[in-house]
Amino acid sequence: MVSVRSEPAASPAEPKSVKIVVSGGFGVGKTTFVAAVSEITPLRTEAAMTSASVRVDDATWLPDKTTTTVAMDFGRITFDDTLRLYLFGTPGQERFGFMWDELVRGALGAVVLVDTRRLDHCYSSIDYYEARDIPFVVAVNQFDDAPLHHRDDVRYALNVADAVPMLRCDARDRESVKDVLVALLETVLKAVQDSRTSALKEDDAPPVAVAEGA
Amino acid sequence: MTSSDDGYTDHDGTLVRPYLVTGGRTRPDGRVLALETLVTTTQRGDARSDHRRFEQRHVLVACREALSIAEIAAELEVPSGVAQVLVGDLVDEGLLRIVESTDANEQVIRRLIDGVRAL
Q: What is the pTM of this model?
């Protein structure tokens, strides 16, 4: 394959960052999940109304609107100094939907963390990712005191497509969290490969079809 | 932006005050800096960090090693919107540089898969 790599003229060990978002309802274990694999103790940042569609530049809006400040916990994994993965725990409830576009923009994909005792708390996350074709996996955080449900039953209750991986996990357990991340990354890889394949098919299309669109 | 107008004083200072360091702006001007966007201090920024006011100096020193907007916000204990504005200003002055982001190509994703497995 002939491909010309256009490397930026930067220092060779320049780090690149990628992002995965971990969403789910309050108390579902997002921060625990992030902490299980992060090389740093999860940090907290707060996003204010800056991403809302209201006119935030007008300071007179601020006093009312700052009450919707939302805290996010995030962690980091560095791979060989040149690639960094950030994991952002995002509030999953519908009322925070206004800020999702900013949080999710550029993400490789998402983990939707589910507590089977509060299934409804993840509906809006799933709807969001489905509607935008963002690769995601569903990870059922198995709390000790929660009843054990069959995966198929959870899938049926959440009404997610068979193509979406669904795993049981323990957010406290590093290996378990790694499994979830690998499942997500494999889904992302497949999505990238599929989009490349379909792009190639378009290239191969007979010239007549191309001419029609021109 | 110099007036401390009365709109601020009646309300919870902890939420409003961070925006004073940004001159009241809650949005960087004309640039989108994602939470995971990495920035690093330029040579010029390094040389001038001593002469900047506290929070700018803090950023310039911290970013000698590339840091994300989210990390800067956590470090300064300000909302991410404030960090975006501060960083945007320093980038405009050539004291910070935005690290070019990578696209999610197959090679990157395979490296991530291998990397996570090896954790």
A: 0.80
